Protein backbone atom coordinates (compact mmCIF):
# COMPACT_ATOMS: atom_id res chain seq x y z
CA UNK A 1 0.00 0.00 0.00
CA UNK A 2 1.15 3.59 -0.64
CA UNK A 3 1.53 5.44 2.67
CA UNK A 4 2.34 9.11 3.18
CA UNK A 5 3.49 10.17 6.63
CA UNK A 6 3.06 13.75 7.84
CA UNK A 7 5.79 14.30 10.43
CA UNK A 8 9.37 13.22 10.88
CA UNK A 9 9.50 12.45 14.61
CA UNK A 10 9.16 9.40 16.80
CA UNK A 11 5.80 8.07 15.61
CA UNK A 12 6.67 8.73 11.96
CA UNK A 13 9.86 6.72 12.32
CA UNK A 14 8.37 3.89 14.39
CA UNK A 15 5.26 3.26 12.26
CA UNK A 16 7.05 4.19 9.04
CA UNK A 17 9.74 1.63 9.86
CA UNK A 18 7.19 -1.05 10.71
CA UNK A 19 5.26 -0.48 7.48
CA UNK A 20 8.39 -0.32 5.35
CA UNK A 21 9.57 -3.61 6.86
CA UNK A 22 6.14 -5.06 6.01
CA UNK A 23 6.67 -4.13 2.35
CA UNK A 24 4.61 -0.95 2.07
CA UNK A 25 5.65 2.02 -0.06
CA UNK A 26 6.24 4.77 2.51
CA UNK A 27 7.06 8.44 1.86
CA UNK A 28 7.98 10.64 4.82
CA UNK A 29 6.87 14.28 4.63
CA UNK A 30 8.10 17.10 6.83
CA UNK A 31 8.25 20.85 6.96
CA UNK A 32 12.02 20.36 7.00
CA UNK A 33 13.22 18.44 3.94
CA UNK A 34 16.42 17.61 5.82
CA UNK A 35 14.55 15.97 8.72
CA UNK A 36 12.24 14.18 6.29
CA UNK A 37 15.27 12.76 4.49
CA UNK A 38 16.94 11.76 7.77
CA UNK A 39 13.83 9.92 9.00
CA UNK A 40 13.28 8.27 5.61
CA UNK A 41 16.87 7.02 5.59
CA UNK A 42 16.57 5.84 9.20
CA UNK A 43 13.61 3.58 8.37
CA UNK A 44 14.57 2.75 4.75
CA UNK A 45 11.42 4.42 3.44
CA UNK A 46 10.93 4.63 -0.30
CA UNK A 47 11.09 8.41 -0.32
CA UNK A 48 10.76 11.75 1.41
CA UNK A 49 9.55 15.23 0.59
CA UNK A 50 7.29 18.05 1.63
CA UNK A 51 4.15 17.55 3.69
CA UNK A 52 2.05 18.07 0.55
CA UNK A 53 4.11 15.53 -1.42
CA UNK A 54 3.61 12.92 1.29
CA UNK A 55 -0.11 13.68 1.43
CA UNK A 56 -0.40 13.20 -2.34
CA UNK A 57 1.63 9.96 -2.25
CA UNK A 58 -0.52 8.02 0.14
CA UNK A 59 -3.64 5.99 -0.41
CA UNK A 60 -3.34 6.25 3.36
CA UNK A 61 -1.80 9.21 5.19
CA UNK A 62 -0.57 8.94 8.78
CA UNK A 63 -0.82 12.22 10.66
CA UNK A 64 2.05 12.19 13.19
CA UNK A 65 2.31 15.80 14.40
CA UNK A 66 1.29 17.43 17.70
CA UNK A 67 -2.48 17.48 18.18
CA UNK A 68 -2.41 21.25 18.64
CA UNK A 69 -1.14 21.68 15.06
CA UNK A 70 -3.15 18.89 13.47
CA UNK A 71 -6.34 20.65 12.35
CA UNK A 72 -4.55 23.58 10.79
CA UNK A 73 -2.17 21.28 8.93
CA UNK A 74 -4.90 18.97 7.67
CA UNK A 75 -7.03 21.95 6.66
CA UNK A 76 -4.13 23.39 4.67
CA UNK A 77 -3.73 20.03 2.88
CA UNK A 78 -7.47 19.37 2.45
CA UNK A 79 -7.26 19.36 -1.34
CA UNK A 80 -4.32 16.94 -1.37
CA UNK A 81 -6.03 14.64 1.14
CA UNK A 82 -9.41 14.50 -0.63
CA UNK A 83 -10.48 10.92 -1.27
CA UNK A 84 -7.68 9.50 0.90
CA UNK A 85 -7.67 7.76 4.25
CA UNK A 86 -6.10 9.89 7.00
CA UNK A 87 -5.05 8.02 10.13
CA UNK A 88 -4.96 10.27 13.18
CA UNK A 89 -2.67 8.97 15.95
CA UNK A 90 -2.56 12.21 17.92
CA UNK A 91 -3.15 12.66 21.62
CA UNK A 92 -4.27 16.13 22.70
CA UNK A 93 -3.16 15.72 26.28
CA UNK A 94 -2.19 18.62 28.53
CA UNK A 95 -0.83 18.47 32.07
CA UNK A 96 -2.94 20.47 34.53
CA UNK A 97 -3.25 20.78 38.32
CA UNK A 98 -5.98 18.16 38.09
CA UNK A 99 -3.80 15.73 36.17
CA UNK A 100 -3.55 14.99 32.48
CA UNK A 101 -6.55 16.43 30.62
CA UNK A 102 -7.75 16.51 27.02
CA UNK A 103 -7.39 19.81 25.20
CA UNK A 104 -10.63 18.95 23.37
CA UNK A 105 -12.53 18.77 26.66
CA UNK A 106 -13.53 15.24 25.77
CA UNK A 107 -16.93 16.06 24.24
CA UNK A 108 -15.44 16.06 20.77
CA UNK A 109 -12.20 14.58 19.43
CA UNK A 110 -9.21 15.67 17.42
CA UNK A 111 -10.31 13.12 14.83
CA UNK A 112 -13.68 14.82 14.34
CA UNK A 113 -11.99 18.22 14.16
CA UNK A 114 -9.78 16.82 11.38
CA UNK A 115 -12.78 15.44 9.53
CA UNK A 116 -14.32 18.93 9.65
CA UNK A 117 -11.06 20.51 8.46
CA UNK A 118 -10.80 18.14 5.48
CA UNK A 119 -14.37 17.02 4.75
CA UNK A 120 -13.43 15.02 1.63
CA UNK A 121 -10.81 12.93 3.46
CA UNK A 122 -11.69 9.72 5.31
CA UNK A 123 -10.40 10.21 8.83
CA UNK A 124 -9.64 7.23 11.07
CA UNK A 125 -8.53 7.31 14.71
CA UNK A 126 -5.91 4.63 15.41
CA UNK A 127 -2.43 3.95 16.83
CA UNK A 128 -2.84 6.52 19.64
CA UNK A 129 -3.00 4.16 22.63
CA UNK A 130 0.51 2.70 22.80
CA UNK A 131 3.85 4.30 23.48
CA UNK A 132 5.95 4.95 20.37
CA UNK A 133 8.40 2.18 21.35
CA UNK A 134 5.67 -0.45 20.90
CA UNK A 135 5.76 -0.04 17.12
CA UNK A 136 9.44 -0.93 16.95
CA UNK A 137 8.81 -4.41 18.38
CA UNK A 138 8.89 -7.32 15.93
CA UNK A 139 6.49 -8.95 16.58
CA UNK A 140 4.19 -6.78 18.71
CA UNK A 141 3.19 -9.69 20.92
CA UNK A 142 2.55 -9.53 24.65
CA UNK A 143 2.22 -12.74 26.70
CA UNK A 144 1.79 -14.59 23.40
CA UNK A 145 -1.14 -12.39 22.36
CA UNK A 146 -0.71 -10.09 19.35
CA UNK A 147 -1.25 -6.45 20.19
CA UNK A 148 -4.83 -5.29 19.52
CA UNK A 149 -5.08 -1.93 17.78
CA UNK A 150 -8.42 -0.22 18.40
CA UNK A 151 -9.63 2.13 15.70
CA UNK A 152 -12.67 4.26 14.88
CA UNK A 153 -13.76 4.95 11.30
CA UNK A 154 -16.87 6.09 9.47
CA UNK A 155 -16.00 4.79 5.99
CA UNK A 156 -15.75 1.10 5.14
CA UNK A 157 -12.90 1.51 2.64
CA UNK A 158 -10.88 3.53 5.17
CA UNK A 159 -11.58 0.92 7.84
CA UNK A 160 -10.44 -1.85 5.49
CA UNK A 161 -7.21 0.01 4.64
CA UNK A 162 -6.53 0.57 8.35
CA UNK A 163 -7.10 -3.12 9.09
CA UNK A 164 -4.64 -4.03 6.35
CA UNK A 165 -2.00 -1.78 7.88
CA UNK A 166 -2.62 -3.15 11.37
CA UNK A 167 -2.56 -6.78 10.26
CA UNK A 168 0.51 -6.34 8.08
CA UNK A 169 2.63 -5.55 11.15
CA UNK A 170 1.39 -8.58 13.07
CA UNK A 171 -1.27 -6.83 15.17
CA UNK A 172 -4.99 -7.47 15.46
CA UNK A 173 -7.49 -4.83 14.32
CA UNK A 174 -10.06 -3.92 16.98
CA UNK A 175 -12.92 -1.96 15.38
CA UNK A 176 -14.52 0.37 17.94
CA UNK A 177 -17.25 2.00 15.88
CA UNK A 178 -17.51 5.27 14.01
CA UNK A 179 -15.67 8.53 14.43
CA UNK A 180 -18.30 9.63 16.96
CA UNK A 181 -16.54 7.22 19.36
CA UNK A 182 -13.00 8.52 18.66
CA UNK A 183 -13.37 10.75 21.73
CA UNK A 184 -13.39 7.55 23.82
CA UNK A 185 -10.11 6.37 22.26
CA UNK A 186 -8.60 9.77 22.98
CA UNK A 187 -9.89 9.73 26.57
CA UNK A 188 -8.59 6.19 27.07
CA UNK A 189 -5.14 7.33 25.99
CA UNK A 190 -5.28 10.31 28.38
CA UNK A 191 -6.20 8.01 31.25
CA UNK A 192 -3.49 5.46 30.40
CA UNK A 193 -0.75 8.05 29.90
CA UNK A 194 -1.75 9.72 33.17
CA UNK A 195 -1.42 6.37 34.95
CA UNK A 196 2.01 5.72 33.38
CA UNK A 197 3.22 9.15 34.39
CA UNK A 198 2.03 8.46 37.96
CA UNK A 199 4.05 5.23 37.99
CA UNK A 200 1.06 2.91 37.53
CA UNK A 201 0.50 0.01 35.12
CA UNK A 202 -2.54 0.68 32.91
CA UNK A 203 -2.26 -2.77 31.29
CA UNK A 204 -2.91 -4.36 34.68
CA UNK A 205 -6.32 -2.66 34.66
CA UNK A 206 -7.50 -4.67 31.61
CA UNK A 207 -6.99 -8.36 32.44
CA UNK A 208 -8.74 -11.11 30.52
CA UNK A 209 -12.15 -11.94 31.96
CA UNK A 210 -11.91 -14.64 34.60
CA UNK A 211 -14.83 -16.40 32.85
CA UNK A 212 -13.09 -16.79 29.48
N1 LIG B 1 5.39 9.49 21.35
C1 LIG B 1 4.45 8.61 21.66
O1 LIG B 1 4.68 7.66 22.46
C2 LIG B 1 3.08 8.72 21.02
C3 LIG B 1 2.19 7.64 21.14
C4 LIG B 1 0.93 7.74 20.55
C5 LIG B 1 0.58 8.89 19.88
N2 LIG B 1 1.46 9.93 19.78
C6 LIG B 1 1.04 11.13 19.06
O2 LIG B 1 1.70 11.14 17.80
C7 LIG B 1 1.95 12.48 17.38
C8 LIG B 1 3.44 12.60 17.04
O3 LIG B 1 4.17 12.27 18.19
P1 LIG B 1 5.75 12.06 18.11
O4 LIG B 1 6.13 11.37 19.37
O5 LIG B 1 6.13 11.49 16.81
O6 LIG B 1 6.25 13.58 18.18
P2 LIG B 1 7.68 14.18 17.76
O7 LIG B 1 8.72 13.14 17.80
O8 LIG B 1 7.84 15.40 18.59
O9 LIG B 1 7.46 14.62 16.23
C9 LIG B 1 6.54 15.60 15.91
C10 LIG B 1 6.62 15.90 14.43
O10 LIG B 1 5.60 16.87 14.13
C11 LIG B 1 6.19 17.89 13.33
N3 LIG B 1 5.45 19.14 13.50
C12 LIG B 1 5.30 19.85 14.64
N4 LIG B 1 4.51 20.92 14.40
C13 LIG B 1 4.20 20.88 13.09
C14 LIG B 1 3.43 21.72 12.23
N5 LIG B 1 2.80 22.82 12.69
N6 LIG B 1 3.33 21.37 10.93
C15 LIG B 1 3.95 20.28 10.45
N7 LIG B 1 4.68 19.44 11.20
C16 LIG B 1 4.80 19.75 12.50
C17 LIG B 1 7.62 17.99 13.82
O11 LIG B 1 8.37 18.61 12.81
P3 LIG B 1 9.64 19.51 13.12
O12 LIG B 1 10.77 18.54 13.32
O13 LIG B 1 9.75 20.34 11.90
O14 LIG B 1 9.35 20.31 14.37
C18 LIG B 1 7.96 16.51 13.98
O15 LIG B 1 8.31 15.95 12.75
C19 LIG B 1 1.53 13.39 18.54
O16 LIG B 1 0.24 13.91 18.27
C20 LIG B 1 1.44 12.44 19.73
O17 LIG B 1 0.46 12.83 20.68
C21 LIG B 1 2.71 9.86 20.32
Fold blueprint:
Blueprint lengths: L1 E5 L3 H12 L3 E5 L3 H10 L4 E3 L1 H7 L2 E4 L3 H10 L1 H4 L3 E4 L4 E4 L2 E4 L7 H8 L4 E5 L14 E2 L2 E2 L1 E6 L2 H13 L3 E4 L6 H16 L15
Parallel strand pairs: 1-2, 1-4, 2-3, 4-5, 5-8, 11-12
Antiparallel strand pairs: 6-7, 8-11, 9-10
Helix pairs in contact: 4-6
The protein binds NADP nicotinamide-adenine-dinucleotide phosphate.
Explained architecture:
The chain has 212 residues and is of the alpha/beta class. The chain has one domain: NAD(P)-binding Rossmann-like Domain (Rossmann fold, 3-Layer(aba) Sandwich). An 8-stranded mixed β-sheet has the order 3-2-1-4-5-8-11-12, sandwiched between helices. A two-stranded antiparallel ribbon has the order 6-7. Helix 4 packs parallel to helix 6. It binds NADP nicotinamide-adenine-dinucleotide phosphate.
What is the helix fraction of residues, given as a range? 25-40%
Order of helices and strands: EHEHEHEHHEEEHEEEEHEH
Determine the CATH superfamily: NAD(P)-binding Rossmann-like Domain
Radius of gyration: 16 Å
Strand ordering within the main sheet: 3-2-1-4-5-8-11-12
pLDDT < 50 runs, ≥5 residues: none
Give me the count of strands.
12
Query: What is the terminal-to-terminal distance?
Result: 36 Å
Bound molecule types: NADP nicotinamide-adenine-dinucleotide phosphate
Average pLDDT number: 96
| Count, helices | 8
* Rough outline: globular
- Output the structural class: alpha/beta
CATH topology: Rossmann fold
| Overall number of structural domains | 1
Biggest sheet, in brief?
A: 8 strands, mixed
Strand percent estimate: 15-25%
Supply the CATH class.
Answer: Alpha Beta
CATH architecture: 3-Layer(aba) Sandwich
Pfam families: F420_oxidored
Keywords: Oxidoreductase
Protein name: NADPH-dependent F420 reductase
Amino acid sequence: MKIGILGTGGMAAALGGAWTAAGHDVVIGGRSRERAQRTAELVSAAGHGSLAAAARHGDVTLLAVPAADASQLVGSLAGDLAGRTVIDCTNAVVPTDEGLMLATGGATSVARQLAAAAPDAYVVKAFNLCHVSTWTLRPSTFENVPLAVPYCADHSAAAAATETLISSIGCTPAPCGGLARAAYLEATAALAIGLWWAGGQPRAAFPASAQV
